[in-house]
Amino acid sequence: MSEVDFEKIYTDSQFKKLKIHLTAIEESAINIITNIDPFSFPTFETKFFSPQQVGPDLLTALQSTGDEFRKDGKISTAGTYTCTINSLKKFSGKEKLPFAAITVSFLKDYEKWFLTPRIIKIKPKGKKKKKEKEKEQEKEQEKVKQNSRTTVSIYLRNVRTVFNKVKPEGVEYPFGKSKNGLYAVPKGKNTKKALTQADVAKIAKFDTIKGTFEQRSRDYWLFSYLCNGINIKDLARLKYSNIDGDKINLIRAKTADTVEEQSTISIPVTPNISRIIDRWGSKPALPDQYVFDILKDKMSPEDEYKAIRQAVQTINKNMTRICAELKIDRATTYTARHSFATVLKRSGASVEFISESLGHKSKQTTQNYLANFEDEEKKKWANVLLPDTEPESGEPNKSI
Q1: In a domain, 397, yes or no
Q2: d(Cα 373, Cα 58) in Å, to the nearest integer?
């Protein structure tokens, strides 16, 4: 190859793959040179031309990373790594997956396999007598299971994270832009479920029996909505020390360990918020005391995760029943945050204000977050442009 041809590799896009390959070789050489002290060409040649070691296999690395998250108390994230491992084992049929096997083709095939609908059998629930159970087993229903793009996106982001962490030598990095011949992790379907201000008012006015789990669940949901859409983990971790006069100050648990400069979310304590705290707040109201009776002191990360998960399930169960009676869209704990942002947006609040309220570090994050909320508004204004002028079926067009 002439010098002119070699220069084209770094300037002509059609040589992109070759450029990536040569860059990887160069980085490998630099890494070896850096670790040879004192440097000598014989030592370099021995190390450079010897078979490359790729370190642990992918599944082992995924397990190790998941264990680190679990140790840090991030039980939910650790769970996604366990699910990623199980899914990759099921797809490959292997207990070990070397990094070298994770090619662009492998990732594409895995994504296609994961998103392909499957027919699964559903066994009857509940305790039955032996004869009844045998009869019902014969009538096992079949159901089509469709995995979501969001789930495969989570799993493959985990794989990419481990690749970036381990940096296996001698293995071509498969992730990147598809136009460059690499594998692009699919984006999850960012479906936002939000209620209108009128529907939230119906929930607030819903007649619940005092002191019941239904009333508590309704109030916890409203508290999440009113407090800038904080999730139930933040609600559960809220302490009286976070309440400073007429405002609540907190740092979201989701970003507590990921953002270098933490920003505190400040929430005005409205009469509605005060009433919920008065009704369900733990007593005595000491600074180190949790406001709500969800968590206990000195809980292990696993027990804390289970307690919060149980609270979420209880709230969602009761909110589903409430919304069904009100004949409005189902509202889950996930819906509260999106409803908060949507109501503000439709009421004329600026994106900057919503971004600060949600605790986002970037305005663009908020723009992406609000993107799906615009569909309904677009349809409304599109219909304003010109009402439907098509005649009903069978009705002749009237001449002017």
Answers
A1: no
A2: 38
Name the residue with tokens 């002119």.
4
Considering the domain architecture, whether residues 290 and 364 belong to the same structural domain is answered as: yes
Dihedral angle sign, alpha carbons of residues 370, 372, 376, 380: positive
Query: What domain range includes position 244?
Result: 197-383
**pLDDT, tens digit, for every residue of 28-51?**
677 678 777 788 888 888 777 765
Give the whole-angstrom CA distance, residue 233 versus residue 307: 10
Residue type, 384: V
Pairwise CA distance, residues 73 & 256, whole Å: 12
Nearest Cα to Cα of residue 218 among 137, 153, 314: 314
Query: Which residues lie below 8 Å from residue 151, measured CB to CB, with a gap of 6+?
Result: 114, 188
Q: Enter the pTM of the model.
A: 0.68
23 and 97 assigned to the same domain: no
pLDDT (mean) for 93-111:
92
Is the same domain home to 172 and 234? no
Domain membership flag for residue 153: yes
Residue 112 covered by a domain: yes
Q: Which residue in the block uniquely carries the two structure tokens 């994770």? A: 102
Please tell me what DSSP assigns to residue 238: -
Q: Using an 8 Å Cβ cutoff, are 224 and 337 in contact? A: yes
In a domain, 333, yes or no: yes
Instruction: Identify whether residues 258 and 114 lie together within a single domain.
Output: no
